[in-house]
Amino acid sequence: MQTTSAARKLQDIVVGLAGNPNSGKTSMFNNLTGARHQVGNWPGVTVEKKEGRLVQDGQGIRVVDLPGTYSLGAYSEDEAVARNYILSGEPDLIINIIDASNLERNLYLTTQLLEMGANLVLALNMIDEAEKRHIKIDLKALAGILSVPVVPTVAVRNKGTQELVLAAVSVADRKQSRPFAIDYGKEAEPGIARLEKALTGVEAIRHLPARWVAVKLLEGDEHIYGRVMQSPKAGDIIKKRDEVAAHIESMTGLDPESLFADRRYGFIAGLIKETVTRKSTTEERLSISDRIDRVVTNRFLGIPIFFLSMFAVFQFTFSLGDPLIGYVEEFFEWLGEGAGALFSNELVASLVADGIIGGVGAVLVFIPPIFLIFFAITLLEDSGYMARAAYIMDRFMHRLGLHGKSFIPLIVGFGCNVPAIMACRTLENKRDRMITILITPLMSCAARLPIYVLFVGAFFTAYQGLIIFSLYILGIALAIMMGILFKRFLFKGEVSPFVMELPPYRVPTLKGMLIHMWERGWAFIKRAGTIIFSVVILIWVFATLPTGVEFASRESYLGAIGGFVAPVFAPLGFGTWEAAAALIFGLLAKEVVVGMFGVIYGIGEDGLTVAIQAYWTPLSAYAFMVMSLIYIPCVATIATIKRETNSWRWTGFAMAYSLLLGWTMAFLVYQGGRLLGLG
Ligand code: GDP
Ligand code: MG
Q: Rounded to a whole number, what is the distance in angstroms from the first to the last CA of the chain?
């Protein structure tokens, strides 16, 4: 019954059937091939091999039944047979039969097949069983997220077989465009990338996906080890492998194999949350992680709990960090006086004491709260809570028509907006990416924290943590609002599906946390020593010139520049040249807002704090903090926006809209507050 179809291939399409034991593979195999099959043994091993053939629209299809396995490690003969066959390049595609009533377990194999780069069709078998248990699966979402066709089947009643064959034919020629990758976390990803690089050019693994080989090497897979050992570069590769594995172990307390399994199950948990709804039955046994998730990701409690934990972070940061600032201040005051006395030349003494030590010191005194906030955020991340927060926000943002994955760059933005904007690369869709790039600078980065701590410490005696928290929330709220506006007016389109990975909760290791805190905190110190250092010198020069004027007076260049712009800020409650100059130079780096006050007033309670108390009120101070948060991102962020959008127009737009928004918000705060009698 050969017909001449245009799509007909001369050769048979070769299909491998893979799945867990008891998923219905044999039943499906018989549906597909009828009685026309032969049984033998896989070459070299005693595992049974079954093969059959069918013809669809003139196209021959050869079906090979693989041994049923739960995983594709190389531990058992069955697993090795299945894996080697998939990697051999012989099959055009793999049909993965999964038991739809038992998705968690079955999808583990699926993720491994995808990671291997297999060309996959998913048969959701036993869909009848799933329905009986009130498990509803969103097939379209599942197919969308995994980028594979999904076909519901009931193998025992020969249902869905035809659809499965058609799906198989339709993808037989498909080339894997972008290999599927699970995010193994920040402790492992850089190492995996390093290893992947070391593996380029290794002949024995030329046909295998490099990332997969790197992951398998880290897992200690003997088969892959064996292959890599054939390479002349083996020594170097294994050495790198051991370093990366040791790093992962010291950071997470888990060996790579356990960590990867954790993350795969995390991915599956997220996938199931996105695509499956089930009526809960009382006999369901819940793991501890599930129990915590019930509360933490609860539809009603999720967001309040998220806000509460963020509030706890700021309360912790401020109440513990503020008292410590005093000690660091004293140190810099002492250093400034001592250094000033060393130089007989008055100008040089002023440059060192006022300019460098005053300016850089004013920023560095915030080391305690900066390190504390990083410690707290690391705690939330490493325990697994941040993933839940992102999950909750994903759900929330999805409802608003925004891409949930946007929230990950936004969280990164709490540290620094620059890497956050680069993290937007994880968004595949150009529209979602542009929107996220444009709103990310509204996240309160660590450089803004010194401004808040300085002003809150000087103007508010109660609720300090709450006030800082309110600025962070304002940033998030504005980001979401602007996101909705941009989506509505600038970047219309569908929201693409996506899975949030939910790793199990874990007690973080102290060492891992300290290292993360240090890495992030060190970046802050390094900035103080480089960019802030140069900018405060610039400010000092502007405060000193022209010769003969009083240092940092209204008559200095600094005063003139600030005074020229100051009227713009008058309606916001801070129309002084000092505030204007701070905001202008703050464009170079937001810490400079604080650094400039350090240059002109010196450091410490009686210097800086008293000086700013003279011309700010609590209300105008809050308006100033709002302005500092929102108005134009710093130059490093602007440069990153330009690089990532590759467009001066959008970069200009990002600057213009944030300046306008910042001015408007500060205006509303100040004038609104005055109307309410707060000024
Ligand atoms: P294998 O171990 O993967 O080869 O699975 P089998 O084909 O031997 O099936 C295992 C068991 O599941 C058998 O008892 C089948 O009758 C049953 N089974 C297979 N497919 C389905 C299905 O779609 N629905 C239901 N209810 N049972 C099925
Ligand atoms: Mg069987």
A: 89
Q: Which domains does the chain have, with CATH numbers?
A: 2-170 (3.40.50.300), 189-278 (1.10.287.1770), 302-499+509-675 (no CATH)
Q: Is 31 in the pocket of ligand 1 (CB under 6 A)?
A: no
Question: What is the greatest pairwise CA distance in the chain?
Answer: 104
- Cis-peptide, bond into residue 43, ω within 30° of zero: no
Cα–Cα dist 118/423, whole Å: 27
Closest of 223, 194, 222 to residue 210, by C-alpha? 194
| HSE, side-chain direction, 13 A CA sphere, residue 533 | 8
pLDDT digits (tens, 9 = 90+) for 585-596: 888 888 888 888
On whether the CB atoms of residues 59 and 5 are closer than 8 A, the answer is yes
Q: What is the pLDDT of residues 409-419, one digit of tens each?
A: 887 788 778 87
Q: Both tokens of residue 27?
A: 């039943």
Distance CA 374, CA 385 (A): 15
> Cβ(154) to ligand 1 under 6 A?
yes
Q: Of the ligands numbered here, which is closest to the C-alpha atom of 50? A: 2
Give the three-state DSSP class for 451: helix
Q: Nearest C-alpha to atom 9 of ligand 1 is from which residue?
A: 24
Rounded distance from Cα 154 to ligand 1 centre (Å): 9
Task: Give, for ligand 1, the residue of 20, 27, 65 to mutate: max count of ligand atoms closer than 8 Å to Cβ.
Answer: 27
